[in-house]
Amino acid sequence: MRQVHIVLLMTILSASGMAQTRKTENIIIVTLDGMRWQEVFGGIDSAIMVNRRYTHDSAGAARYWGSDMLERRKKLFPFFWNTIAAQGQLYGNRNIGSNVDNANPYKFSYPGYNEIFTGYPDSAVNSNDKIYNKNTNVLEFINKEKNYKGKIAVFATWDAYPYILNAPRSGIYVNADYDTLQFHNENLKLINDIQFLDPRNTGERPDLLTYIAAREYVKAYKPKILYIAFDETDDYAHAGEYNHYLNSAHAEDGMIADLWKMIQLMPQYRDKTTLIVTCDHGRGDKIKDQWKSHGQDIADAGHIWIAVMGPDTPPFGEVKPSETLFQKQLAPTIAALLGLHFVPDHGNAAIISTIFP
Ligand SMILES: [Zn+2]
What we know:
15 helices, two-stranded parallel ribbon, eight-stranded mixed beta sheet, binds zinc ion, alpha/beta, 10 strands
């Protein structure tokens, strides 16, 4: 039904010559590392929830429980289901036949982020090693445009980001892990103090600090392209800590809501900003214990999801595309939203036409 709806609407739009003028001037991208589509669209997983090996705090997990799946997903991801679902689009609910996949066969982080940003599932990018990426990414492509030069910032929890996005070559600002925030700004200086005194329990900067650093940077320096790369969902899933995995996902939904609310009060961003939220890879599910893991040996770990909202994206809610979408399509779609045409170094990827008709 939804499919018919979209095709009809797009036919009407093009037949009437009413193709809207592009409104996006800023883009915010957020990734939740290894966040499963199963929880994004279905809420807390009842089988993992009752397994004491993974869920150590049943009362804590119960706050995400509800009588049906729609209620459960809203409790876990309130911003996704109250705001993005109403004003934007969500892809990847395989329960309704909406498929988004990794095109790369590796189903882990560096190959996934490479695919998102370079539009090319490179077989040479097949490890998480800190090697500078040879492929041109869409952020560095955008940074070559006069209007965007120096107006792109990346805040990441994982310290591989300067390599994934090849910060020395691309020239974009990448602040990763416990990188010092070298700014003459009192709030950013305070974040430095907090991160240096942080106990480093996960071995990485907490996602909350990555977020607050990004938020304060937006207030002070107003980048046109902002990318926030969270990591805790993957860390806690590997550790088999289902409560922490859910709590981080829920908190990150709240951080996205907080950022969206803030930018609505800023004239540079209001009604001119597209938000894209996605992940690098999925995790196992068919064999339930594999929810902790991902990679080439786990068949369903290549199943991912995308959420989008912005002034150029029709509010279709959950979308069921006629064909499987791939992660590599995000790079040209990000460029197209700014009126730019990004061609990957190798291969080919079409834009996701329902996001930007
Ligand atoms: Zn992982």
